[in-house]
Amino acid sequence: MHINTLALFVLVAVIFFLFTLIVFIMLRLISSSRRLAAAEEGGGTTAFMASAMQDAVARMRAHERELAARAEASERLSDQIIDSLPSGLLVTGASAEPRRINPAGARMLGLPDATAGAAGAAEMPASGFWEQLGDSGAALRALIDECLATGAGSSRRTIVIDRPSAGGRRHLGVSVAPLRDGSGAVTGAICLFADLTSVVELEDQLRLKDSLARLGELTAGLAHEFRNGLATIHGYARLMNAEKLPPEHRAYVESLRAETDSLTEIVANFLAFARPASQTLLPIALAPIVARAVEESAPDARRHGGTVDASGDFAEVDGDDVMLRQALSNLLRNAVEACAEARTAPLVRVHGAVDRAAGLQRLAVSDNGPGVAAAVGDKVFQPFFTTRGRGTGLGLALVQKIIVSHNGRVTLGASPDGGAEFTIVLPLAAGSK
């Protein structure tokens, strides 16, 4: 009995131990499972947040690249617009130091292409800019300084740039405006300018046409009266036989004849100059007119050991062949006489060039004579102004009148041979453009 009780007790103890062990193991398994589930849940959240962060960073980088591309495209478009402007653009700082100039502006100011920068309208150094312009840039600098000092802009001021690299004397219409920062302080100036040379030349031609018409109306009658009186004096002087006069009176008759001849020529030229133009402009070939004028002037040049020749291209122009030949003959005769008075064998050339894109015919009459002094260069086309002892002062005035009446212009410059060069510009006939 005692042994059975002990065995039962031992069996119960073993069973309790096993039950306790199984419960403990199950509890450990449940706890481990919970920790594993919690760990798996925490790892998923972290991965999700990391993935979302990467997506956000990628979108920000893509947006940044898009903004950079837009900024680059905008800057490139701005440079293209500035480079393509037909007008000049100059941007300066607060001390008038240049910061930017576009290619058109560099050409108008006669500056080298490198001044505008490698990319056209680019940042440029201030050193040497105003020094390159020299005296021609003084008027432009004055407008910019005035704008920077007063903070007020100016519009359509006309200045003159006289630089060989800019094509000679050019008239520029300039507008200047101040550049301001966010606080309103002036930080620089922006200058826009356009070439008004053709407009100024057209205005000069219109004024000249008007003045010539008024001059013709006022003086034509008076010149006729002078011519009638001179014809009478000249006729009586010719009737006098110098051989039958006393020797002391012969010189008086010869002087009278010479002076009446000279005055008759002056009056005839003045009448041709003052008479209102009534020519009919028709399409005519310029080459035969040039050839005829050269042929008429060649004998005088040969008498002085020189030549007159023509070269280049000649097209059709709207004009009057008689008047154009007269104008060209006057220029050739003046050139031959100027060389002869300087005791130089005349070398007179007529060169033609056709610019069909612009619709213009250019004629250059050059010689190797003494040339024309710069001080009187602006006066040579004025009536009765002459630098020659026996000149009437109406030859070049008549040339200008004829050319202006043909809607052209004539200018004076220096010849490559050291003398004078007169350049005639005429519009081409409609069929030659």
Outline the structure in words.
The protein has 433 residues and is α+β, with helices and mostly antiparallel strands. It contains nine helices and twelve strands. Strands 2-1-5-4-3 form a five-stranded antiparallel β-sheet, with helices on both faces. A five-stranded mixed β-sheet has the order 7-9-10-12-11, with helices on one face. The longest helix is centred in the first third of the chain and has 83 residues, at 2-84. The chain is rod-shaped. Mean pLDDT is 79; it is low at 114-123.
Features:
5-stranded mixed β-sheet; 5-stranded antiparallel β-sheet; alpha+beta; 9 helices; 433 residues; 53% helix
Topology:
Blueprint: H1 2-84, E1 88-93, E2 98-101, H2 103-108, H3 129-133, H4 138-150, E3 154-163, E4 168-180, E5 186-195, H5 197-239, H6 247-274, E6 282-285, H7 286-303, E7 307-312, E8 316-319, H8 321-341, E9 347-355, E10 360-366, H9 395-405, E11 409-414, E12 420-427
Parallel strand pairs: 7-9
Antiparallel strand pairs: 1-2, 1-5, 3-4, 4-5, 6-8, 9-10, 10-12, 11-12
Helix pairs in contact: 5-6, 6-9, 7-8, 8-9
Q: Please provide the ordered H/E string of secondary-structure elements.
A: HEEHHHEEEHHEHEEHEEHEE
Biggest sheet, spatial arrangement of strands: 2-1-5-4-3
Give the CA-CA distance, first to last residue. Answer: 146 Å
Low-confidence stretches: 114-123
Major sheet summary line: 5 strands, antiparallel
Strand content: 15-25%
Number of helices: 9
Q: Radius of gyration from the CA trace?
A: 46 Å
Helix content: 40-55%
How many beta-strand elements?
12
Which outline best applies? rod-shaped
Secondary structure class reads alpha+beta
Mean pLDDT figure = 79
